[in-house]
Amino acid sequence: MGVKVELAAHTVDTFPPSPPRTVGNSHAGTDDEQEEEDNTPPTPPEERLDQLLKSYTLPPQSTPTQVLAEDLKTPDHRVNRDPRLIRLTGVHPFNVEPPLTELYDEGFLTSENLHYVRNHGSVPHCTDDESLDWTFAVDGLVEKPFTITVRDLIETCDQFTYPVTLVCAGNRRKEQNVVRKSKGFSWGAAGLSTALWTGVPIGALLRMAKPKSAAKYVCFEGADKLPNGYYGTSVKLNWCLDENRGIMVAHKMNGQPLHPDHGKPVRIIIPGQIGGRSVKWLKKITVTAEPSDNWYHIYDNRVLPTTVSPDASVNLPDVWKDERYAIYDLNVNSAICYPRHDERLLLATAPETYKVRGYAYGGGGKRITRVEVTLNKGKSWLLADIHYPEDDYRRAPDGDTLYGGSTDMWWRETSFCWCFWEMSIPVADLGAADDIMIRAMDEGMMVQPRDMYWSVLGMMNNPWFRVVVHKDQGSLRFEHPTQPALMPGGWMERVK
Amino acid sequence: MGVKVELAAHTVDTFPPSPPRTVGNSHAGTDDEQEEEDNTPPTPPEERLDQLLKSYTLPPQSTPTQVLAEDLKTPDHRVNRDPRLIRLTGVHPFNVEPPLTELYDEGFLTSENLHYVRNHGSVPHCTDDESLDWTFAVDGLVEKPFTITVRDLIETCDQFTYPVTLVCAGNRRKEQNVVRKSKGFSWGAAGLSTALWTGVPIGALLRMAKPKSAAKYVCFEGADKLPNGYYGTSVKLNWCLDENRGIMVAHKMNGQPLHPDHGKPVRIIIPGQIGGRSVKWLKKITVTAEPSDNWYHIYDNRVLPTTVSPDASVNLPDVWKDERYAIYDLNVNSAICYPRHDERLLLATAPETYKVRGYAYGGGGKRITRVEVTLNKGKSWLLADIHYPEDDYRRAPDGDTLYGGSTDMWWRETSFCWCFWEMSIPVADLGAADDIMIRAMDEGMMVQPRDMYWSVLGMMNNPWFRVVVHKDQGSLRFEHPTQPALMPGGWMERVK
């Protein structure tokens, strides 16, 4: 788990409680927190003192990494990586998730080492020396198009820092592939990670460019040149202009310049939406009247109707282009992290209760309001405890800074991150059960479905997560549904 | 179905595409559409001409109503009503839904006659003469509290008109009550209706009052005095300040002053949230740091964990007060309207195909992206056609007026209303099926669950809607799950 810091106490008497459009005391480009105090009196109202002194978690230290042997023969031969990451698409391109247990053990924030990576091709090359001179354009249906360097982004714009959980739309896809092969590769349940991102709200850049009246969408394009062109996608202009959504052009991850796999030197971060919209190695922000016509916008990150087969989909360009099937907000999902896959519990020495634990997340800013556990296949449910570590950031006073950006959370009630749930269960009850299944519900009272919604790209897989309980030789052995990539194991392969 | 009107063609060149905070050419207090044209040139860009000439549907005519005999002995003895409405809680208080078929047949917009009603007690009395002098307060954690008359609301504030579907959180509750009695009365599937509402964005009033820094919630209180005080509830301040959400203080419904059952003379309208937050007969808008402590805010409109029984709930005040269980955004839901309950299809004279039809809605502005139909209990699904009549309003040019308010839809991509779906199915296939089941999915890729989430108040019931197909004597007979109130009928009563 990460380091905890105590926050200085400030008074909070700024109006409005709706998002600040500009923040006066952010410290662009500095890494020190609270370098300059603001001028408000240091004595907070007594009733808030206790609240303001709460602490938040900082990221775990990254362990040293190096260029791995298997990367030497690829175009990514300059990129340092962590050998624990599990490769999902062979050696290259680099698509990886961490081991689920190690991800969970890092806690709320994920180090850059273990953060999942979704690369479509090789990593665009940008040295430390080149980073600040990297440019991207803001153009299209705007009155004042401009090109800006990363240096100017940092030095001339107000900076913000807040935690965001990124999730690949393919998280848990392996389960779909076991049922029926989809067009996507096999993510386990660790295709998500949370980091502290520092950057500039995209609304600030768009307002500088002044979108024209016909403007409705914002297209992003990266520097990663692929067989079907540069990777690109779009979201709605209204979302970009809405501070509540927190869409950001980010240049730091966990207080450091971006790692090459995470978009060095600059990328988009979209809380609550699938990772595929958070374009890395950003080169263009283009305002348009229509959604992006980029190949990857149309033929990736969609949930087609379940009846469309992979074969049939080839001849259905109009179905692919139907924006109703494009995925933006995440759907509700959850997984059991402990007991982990193949964990054994010796009954002779086991404590009376076992703490079942895992994560859950909602989409589009929606919070998880309950996680329920069943030991009898859904006939009855038990209510787990939920913990939202991101709430600690909301207790940071307005104007507090972290990694050179204001901690922009105090006014937000929307959720940007995953949460953790746990439940202590008598070991005797676990021993009497065939399986442990969980489901989460969001604040819109939408609950994870019992059954899988299989689709041609295998995305947004979110049925109840099921861990099977085996009894053998005086112990309980737990089995997860799948293992990521081509790794064997998991009850789904046995029952298919 | 309602009347269609042709819109005048305007150019649309106003910036921003994000919501206009003020609109210059609204015509407060007038009922005439387009009474004054704005000054923009009448020739639209050619490529938009076709789009701008599209028409939208106006409300169906209300048929004459009168005070009904059964109301004469109640405190509502002055209120005109439609005898077709089905009473759900005896004679008084007045809680009614229309017959599902008649509701569907009215089309996108519902007349005030057939609009569902949820009253907790007797209707506060307000004559036509008193309406304009009715006052409500804007107070609490604000710098400038004020009291305003309905007259001033109409004459001094910018007015808007748009369609909103209101849905009772208890819609479809009868299904829950058949499985296990909840604490709520038995709504069928017609606890929802759509009207054109005219009024003032609540954000405008709140900005006039200037909320203080600790402000986080907005409480509403009506004039309906009940056993546990005046009816009241709260929503978040950020939502009220967000123009995308469209929360309105309304004084007209379908172009007429509000009917007594619908809040005469003034009420709250909250698109995308449950009807229980749209307080009628508005007397107070109070800004607070905490959610409302009104009895009805705490002990109504909640989805408690499914394990809490009605008996146990009595001793769980902390569970009731847990805001995680309060319902704001609606969840995804849908129903089959045709075939209607007990409809018969003579096979000898039936056409080759039958058009199965119904409604669907999402919550919190989310659109329905697909409705799927299964004739084999979910083994395979068919994709229905979806139609969103509210989109016609988006084609009205910016500044166009209706019932004295700007048609404030052109910039909105969020959904405020129900949609309609249909699918032509070979009669032979219907005859071969045991049942017709449907499920809808929203743009967050959340799908209606197969199984009911029973809860102590029986709210937000949204499992797949199932109509049973009976074959007898050369005909098909269709059976809905339930009939509203204490009306017998429906397959759920037979199989319980």
Automatic annotation (TrEMBL), chains A, B:
Keyword field: FAD, Flavoprotein, Heme, Iron, Metal-binding, Molybdenum, NADP, Nitrate assimilation, Oxidoreductase
Name of the featured protein: Nitrate reductase [NADPH]
Cofactor dependency: FAD; heme; Mo-molybdopterin
Source organism of the structure: Cordyceps confragosa (Lecanicillium lecanii)
The keyword Cytoplasm appears for this protein: no
GO molecular function annotations of the record: heme binding; molybdenum ion binding; molybdopterin cofactor binding; nitrate reductase (NADPH) activity; sulfite oxidase activity
Domain of life: Eukaryota
Gene3D superfamilies linked to this entry: 2.60.40.650, Oxidoreductase, molybdopterin-binding domain
Annotated stretches, region: Disordered: 1-48
Limits of the Oxidoreductase molybdopterin-binding domain: 120-296
GO biological process: nitrate assimilation; sulfur compound metabolic process
Domain Moybdenum cofactor oxidoreductase dimerisation, chain residue ranges per copy: 324-471
Range of residues in the leader sequence: none
Enzyme class name: oxidoreductase
Record-listed E.C. numbers: 1.7.1.3
Catalytic activity, as annotated: nitrite + NADP(+) + H2O = nitrate + NADPH + H(+)
InterPro entries assigned to the protein according to its UniProt record, in alphabetical order: Ig_E-set, MoCF_OxRdtse_dimer, Mopterin_OxRdtase_euk, OxRdtase_Mopterin-bd_dom, OxRdtase_Mopterin-bd_sf
Entries under SUPFAM superfamilies matching the protein: E set domains (SSF81296), Oxidoreductase molybdopterin-binding domain (SSF56524)
Role description: Nitrate reductase is a key enzyme involved in the first step of nitrate assimilation in plants, fungi and bacteria.
Homology family: Belongs to the nitrate reductase family.
Subunit structure: Homodimer.
